[in-house]
Amino acid sequence: MPSPTPVPPRDRADTPWRSEGAPPTPPPKKKGLPGGWRGLILAALIVYLVANLVLSFFNEGDEPTISYTEFSKQVAEGNVSKIYSKGDAIQGELKAARPLPDGDKGDYTKFVTQRPAFADDELWANLTKQNVTVTASPVVVQRSFLSNLLISLAPMLLLVLLWVVIARRMGSGMGGMGALGRKAPPKPVELETGAERTTFEDVAGIDEVEGELNDVVDFLKNPQEYRKMGARMPGGVLLSGPPGTGKTLLARAVAGEAGVPFFSASASEFIEMIVGVGASRVRELFTEARKVAPAIIFIDEIDTIGRARGGSSAMGGHDEREQTLNQILTEMDGFSGSEGVIVLAATNRADVLDPALTRPGRFDRMVVVSPPDRSGREAILRIHTRDIPLAEGVNLAQVARTTPGMTGADLANLANEAALLAVKRQQTQVTQSDLSDALEKVQLGAERPLVMPEEERRRTAHHESGHALLGMLQPGADPVRKITIVPRGRALGVTLSTPDADRYAYTEEYLRGRIIGALGGMAAEQVVYDVITTGAENDLEQVTNIVRGMVGRWGMSERIGRLTAIPSDGQSPYGLSAAPATLDAVDHEMRRIVDECYLEACRLLREHRPQLDALAEALLANETLDEAAAYAAAGIVRMTKAHGTD
C-alpha cells in the first residue's frame, strides 16, 4: 500500500538514501587541497614571473625613448608642449604626434630622452623662446610598485580559484572519491522536517505482519528489558511478498511507531560502473545510521545486489555487485546488540537471495507480506478514501468482495481512478457507479472506440458467450460478473468471473473447469462457425500457464507423479530441472489434459446450443450484460452454496 506521506529528499545525487526523523549532524571538516601546497606555490611563482615579464614589455612600449638630436629638432620646430627634467633625464610631450624614430611603426606624443653631459646648446633659451612649459611633476606618471604587484598577482589569484574549483569537483565526483583516490568524508543526510511520521494506523489489511513487526518496535522502545533477559536485537528483518503489498510502508511504519530515524534506499542505487563505489556508499550509509542509533535502515529490492554469488552473471570476486553484497554482509555481521541499528529489506524474490544474507544473525526473520483478504481490502479502501468525498450508499464492503487478489497498491489505484471519473463527470462526490466503472477499467482495460463489421461483432458475441456459458455450467466455477463485447484494452470482448470468497488452494476439478471456461471462446467459434480465429490468443496463454502448473508443479498427473518437474520462478519454464524424458512426458500430459478439456467444452456447447445463441443475441442487443442479466439471458439459475458455490 503506497505511503500517504511524501518521501524525504536526498542531500546530494551520489547519496543513494533518504532519511526521516534523524537529528542534525555536525558539518564535516573541511579538507585541504589535493596535491598539497607545495605544488600550488610553485605554480603561483611561475605565473608571477611570466606576468612580470609580460608587463615589462607593455611598460616599455608606453613611453618610447628618443635621441637627444630628435628632441632638439622638435624643440626647434616648436612641437614640444611641456617637459620635466630630473638631472639629465628629460620627459616630455609633443603638441602633435610624430612617427617613431629608427623606422619603428606607430606615432608617439610622450617621450623620454637623456641630455649628454658635454652638450652646450643653450637648451633653456630655446625652451623659453618656444614657450615650452617646464613642469614640476613628471609628464608620464609611472605605476607604483603596489599597482604593479596587484596586476601581477591577478593571474595567480585566478589560478588559485580554478585550482580550488577543480579540486572540489573532483572530490565530489567519482562516487565520493577524491582527486587522488581518497574517499571524501561522509556528508550529513538531508533531514525531513515538518512531516508526519508513518505509523501502523496508516497500514491496514496485514494485521498478522504487524504483529511480527511489533516485536521490533518494542525492542527499539525498551531495549533494556530485553537485555536483562539476555535477548539480542534482531540484526535484520526480510519482508517478502508480491509487488504492491505494502512492504515499504510497513518499514516506515515500524520506524514511525518506534520514533527512531529511518534511512531508506533502493539496492540498485548502490551499483555503479566503477568497482568499489557501491561498497563505499554502503559503508557511508551504515556510518550515518550508527551516529543516530537506535535507527532503521531499509533497503528496497535487495535481490538486485543480494542474489546468490557464483552464478554465470558474476565476473569473479571483484564484481561490483558482489563487492557491494560483501560490504552489506560485513556491516550486518559487525552489529552488536548495543548499536541499536536494525536492517529491514524488501524483495519479491526471496528464493534467489544469497544464503549468507538470509542466515540468522543477519536477517533473523523472514516476514511474508501477502495480498489482503476481504476484510483487509475493505480496511485499505477506507484508508485510501479518507480524503475522497463518498456519496450516500457507497458500499466499500461490496467493492472489497469483488476485488479478490488485489494488493494495497491496486486498491489505491482503484480509489484514484474512481475519483478521476467523478471529476470528469462533473460530480461533487464519488458514487458506487464510479467505483464500479473504475474497477472495470482496472480489471478489463479502457474502452476503445472501435467499429467492427457486423460479422466479426457477431462472432465476438458467440466467443464471449462461450466463455460465460461454460462458467455458468461448471460446478464450483467462479460466478460470471460481467460480459461485454465493447473492445477494451487489446481484447475485442471480455468476460469477467471472480469468486465470492478468497481462494487459497485449488482442486484439480476447479482447475479443469478454469481450462474449460478459457477454451469456451474457441470452442464456441468452432461449434457455431467451424473456424478458429486469433481472438483466443490470451485464452491459450492462460490455459498454458494453468496446465503447466498442474502437470509440472502440483502433481496432478499420474504419469508424471508427485514431483516438481518445472521450476516455479518462471525464468526457465523448460529448464534442466528434470530429465529430458520427464520434460517430454510433461509436454505429452499437458497436451492430453488440454485436448480433453477442449472436447468437453465443445460437447457442452453443442448440448446447450440454444442457451449459447440466446446469450449471444442478448449481447448483440445490449453490448454489456451484468451478472443478473447474463444468467437471465442464458436461462440458468445461479447455483447456491448447497450445489458447490456461493
From TrEMBL:
Binding residues annotated for ATP, in chain numbering: G241, P242, P243, G244, T245, G246, K247, T248
Cofactor note: Binds 1 zinc ion per subunit.
PROSITE patterns: AAA
Pfam families: AAA, AAA_lid_3, FtsH_ext, Peptidase_M41
InterPro entries per the UniProt record, alphabetical: AAA+_ATPase, AAA_lid_3, ATPase_AAA_core, ATPase_AAA_CS, FtsH, P-loop_NTPase, Pept_M41_FtsH_extracell, Peptidase_M41
PANTHER family: ATP-DEPENDENT ZINC METALLOPROTEASE YME1L1, METALLOPROTEASE M41 FTSH
Name the record gives this protein: ATP-dependent zinc metalloprotease FtsH
Lineage: Bacteria, Bacillati, Actinomycetota, Actinomycetes, Kitasatosporales
